[in-house]
Structures
1.
Amino acid sequence: MIDSHTHLYWKKFDDDRDQVLARARDAGVEALLVIGIDVETCQQAIELAESDPTIFATAGFHPCDLKDITEDDWITLDGFLKHKSVVAVGETGLDYYWETDSIDTQKEALERHFALARKHDLPLVIHTRDSIDDFLKILGDEAPGLRGVMHCFSGDTAQMEETIALGFDVSFAGPLTYKKSAALREACQAVPADRFHIETDSPFLPPQSKRGKRNEPALVREVAEKVAELRGWTLKETMEQTATNTRRLFGLPR
Ligand SMILES: [Zn+2]
């Protein structure tokens, strides 16, 4: 199985990153995507990827981290995307929960990430919060030539279907296991087998059994268990199918 979204460079992992990776492997994680959100963390993601053949990096500017991004940073990002261990552009997207004052800036940055994805022929990793419909509207005008994943999908079945129709995949994280996430579980049951991924978004969003604690890549197994239960698959089928999907979208080597 693959954890398709972790922020493994986060300070909270500094004391035990090697053990975290060992636990992930013991849990059946065969590869991880480490997601950059600004210049510093993109660099750290690339360094992690260079240190371990099972780690891959992405590079982009998170919608909540745009305030200090300079024109030079965009040039640096363009350079990161040429790196052989960088497999996607992002995370980028729209956050209308934390960042209500910067919506125009976020949309402009999103368009620049779209342009970079086209230029480098890479998939996109998309963050949305309280913004799925606006994102889908923008994607509707831009979709040809783009591919990617709506990470930590939080929508309903109709929004999932629209995302898939526009050529993007969805990815399920810890919230799939939360009691209140009935609409999300319904979307997970309805999504085409070859169009979804699993992730932790660690150190954030731990699954139900670890709420309030630090999340880590090993716990993607709980997301896989929930997917298996919802779809009537075995855990092995779930791990293999989602890993195949993630390898395909991001062009990961076997
Ligand atoms: Zn993230």
2.
Amino acid sequence: MNYAIVYSSKTGNTARLAQTIRDTLGEKDCLYFGAPDPAAAEAGLLFVGFWTDKGQADEELTAFLKGLRGKRVFLFGTAGFGGSQPYFDQILDRVQAALDPSNRVVGRYMCQGRMPAPVRARYQAMAAQDPAKWQPMIDNFDRALSHPDETDLAALGRAVAELAL
Ligand SMILES: Cc1cc2nc3c(=O)[nH]c(=O)nc-3n(C[C@H](O)[C@H](O)[C@H](O)COP(=O)(O)O)c2cc1C
């Protein structure tokens, strides 16, 4: 069966997940790879990837999800905060809520993704005022720096390889 990979990625983290899916499944049956586009909805199976923007997928990707009907959908994404599956699950639930019930979600995957350096500088300025609140944010920023890492990408690759295409 052919498939499409549709994703939004501002700083490249989610793009690495998208590339891992393409590497896992091979290019032969890949109908579409790239930003949200109606051409992708020709495929029966769609891998839809997002970066977390204030707890949600961004507007363009959400609009794309809203337009899908009768598809098998695998959701994947990255978030700056992480290390907790319940945190990822609540984001995934919010993103999934954009899908019409005629679609079927066949898999979901999320991992942490590094954030740009100016974010840390902002946290540091805040930590000078209120370290109890902001030091944990700095610690999280530093933990995120190595993600997505090889373990994250391998776990995604396994989840995708297990799907019956
Ligand atoms: C404007 C903005 C809002 C963000 N909001 C969140 C958020 O609500 N929760 C979170 O965990 N990460 C948040 N992040 C972090 C990104 O989701 C994270 O770094 C992600 O891996 C970026 O993916 P990308 O490289 O594919 O763009 C935000 C980043 C930006 C720039």
